[in-house]
Design goal:
The protein is α+β, with helices and mostly antiparallel strands. The chain has three domains: 4-93, 3-Layer(aba) Sandwich (Rossmann fold), CATH 3.40.50; 101-119 and 186-304, D-amino Acid Aminotransferase, Chain A, domain 1 (2-Layer Sandwich), CATH 3.30.470.20; 123-184, 2-Layer Sandwich (Dna Ligase, domain 1). The chain contains ten helices and 14 strands. Strands 9, 10, 11, 12, 13 and 14 form a six-stranded antiparallel β-sheet that branches. The longest helix is centred in the last third of the chain and has 20 residues, at 301-320. It starts with a strand and ends in a 6-residue tail after the last helix.
Length: 326
């Protein structure tokens, strides 16, 4: 049988460019060379494609059978790149346009999850040029977490404990996005859970994140070697089942398929789990938790890549059977 021609797209115009490079190298080194013929498409920080762009027309990319995008953050994880692959009629790994867009925008994630009955933390939305720290404190109190509404890898996120800290955090977050989300700080623990599948989904065993600092920020994820991981998480059977159920419910509610990593907060005082975020193209570096959780759950890294490719092909075949005109 001929090899499947897989285009790995990585880099991108986002604050997560360097993380994407590392994810791509890990994926490429673990794709079976007996099964796949890999081509690289690097998107630079200014948006240029090297060696050239994927063209948005069916049949215009004869050297590509399937795309494995691993562009984290804006212009990659937000539905824009997925729209390109849809126009090109190419199967691709990860959620589609709608799921990617809704999961990327933290406000719409929370709106959809709330309507679906998935527990979320109280929050406030503000916009660049209309930032009001006093209004936030009046509604949520302190401390709070301040985040750009459309970014990942904890870029631009700060914990604010006083008015001056909140004002500074709002300005920083607003430099990364026109919309800022502010969330009530939850005193407790942080967990993650991986989800895999299209119409039928399964959740991995969860892990607990134990950052050395106050929260799991960018440096803790990618720079410092101080964060500890408990895999599997030290939870009882009921708690583990609750996380796994909430993870699948969240992914389904957002319309995601293929893969997603769901991040949780656990409030010690109430015993409540909250879905914090849903990541549709989670990290695939050597230390990333999405593949590590699946490895612990019985799916090794290389087999996980195979399965993601199978899911992409299955979804593309399903869509090919759909009528788009009379």
């Amino acid at each position: 049988m001929s090899k499947l021609k897989v285009a790995v797209v990585y880099g991108g115009r986002s604050g997560e460019h360097e993380v994407s490079l590392r994810s791509a190298e890990s994926i490429i080194s673990n794709l079976d060379p007996e099964r796949y013929e890999v081509s690289r498409f690097l998107v630079t920080k200014d948006g240029a494609w090297n060696p050239g762009p994927i063209l948005p027309a069916p049949g215009a990319n004869p050297n590509i059978d399937l795309v494995f995008p691993i562009v984290h953050g804006t212009f990659g994880e937000d539905g824009t790149m997925q729209g390109l692959f849809e126009l090109a009629d190419l199967p691709y790994v990860g959620p589609g346009v709608l799921g990617s867009a809704t999961a990327m925008d933290k406000e719409f994630t929370k709106r959809i999850l709330h309507d679906a009955g998935v527990p979320i933390v109280d929050y406030v939305i503000q916009r660049r040029g209309e930032l009001d720290a006093a209004a936030i404190i009046a509604k949520l109190g302190l401390p709070v977490f301040v985040k750009p509404a459309n970014l990942g890898s904890s870029v631009g996120i700060n914990k604010a404990k006083n008015l001056a800290g909140l004002e500074a955090a709002l300005e920083e977050a607003a430099s990364f996005d026109t919309k800022v989300i502010i969330e009530r700080a939850v005193a407790g623990r942080e967990f993650e859970c991986s989800v895999l599948g299209n119409e039928e989904m399964q959740a991995s065993f969860p892990c607990e994140i134990l950052p050395a600092g106050e929260f799991y920020d960018y440096d803790a994820k990618y720079v410092l070697d101080t964060t500890r991981i408990e895999l599997p998480a030290k939870l009882d059977a009921a708690q583990t089942a609750a996380i796994r159920k909430h993870a699948v419910d969240a992914v389904r509610a957002l319309g995601c398929e293929g893969m997603s990593r769901v991040d949780f907060l656990y409030e010690t005082a109430t015993g409540q789990f909250y879905v914090n975020e849903v990541n549709t193209l989670p990290g695939f570096t050597s230390i990333s938790m999405y593949p590590k959780m699946w490895e612990h759950s019985g799916i090794p890294y290389a087999r996980l890549l195979d399965r993601l490719i199978e899911l992409a092909l299955e979804r593309h075949a399903r869509k090919a059977a759909t009528r788009f005109y009379r």
